[in-house]
Amino acid sequence: MKPADVSVPADQHVTPPWDTQYPAQPLAQCVAATVRRYLDELGDSEPTNLHQLLLEQVEKPLLAVVMEKARGNRCRAAEVLGINRNTLRKKLQQYGL
After folding, report:
1. pLDDT of 19 higher than 90
2. How confident is the model at residue 39 (pLDDT cuts 50, 70, 90)?
3. For the chain, does the N or the C end have fewer beta carbons within 10 angstroms?
4. Distance between CA atoms of 18 and 3, rounded to whole angstroms?
5. How many CA within 13 A on the CB side of residue 24?
């Protein structure tokens, strides 16, 4: 199977409000490379529930980093994440953050 094209057009890059430089590698390419490496390391084993696993593995560090960059300000973090403040609060509790 041919690898999916996960390139991001230059006009679709989003600069986080706390950083004025674009990342060296677009997020989609980082995720794709990590998923490929994970699947390669599984070898002949068939993954199950990969979608849920990926969401869980990405969401906690995402929330932690955004909260750190927002200096603990939940309103700002929710804005950056594009989610409701109450949703953020629930997710932070869910992950013990």
Report:
1. no
2. very high
3. N
4. 32
5. 0
Residue that the structure tokens 């990969």 belong to = 50
Segments in 13-95 forming alpha helices (H): 27-42, 50-69, 74-81, 85-94
Neighbours of 88 (CB within 10 A): 21
20-36 average pLDDT score: 77
What span, in angstroms and rounded, lies between the C-alpha atoms of 84 and 39?
Answer: 33
Which residues neighbour 8 within 8 Å (Cβ) at sequence distance 6 or greater?
A: 26, 28, 29
Structure tokens at 33: 């490379």
> At a CB cut-off of 8 Å and minimum separation 6, what does 70 contact?
18, 76, 77, 80
Residue 22: in which H helix or E strand, if any?
none
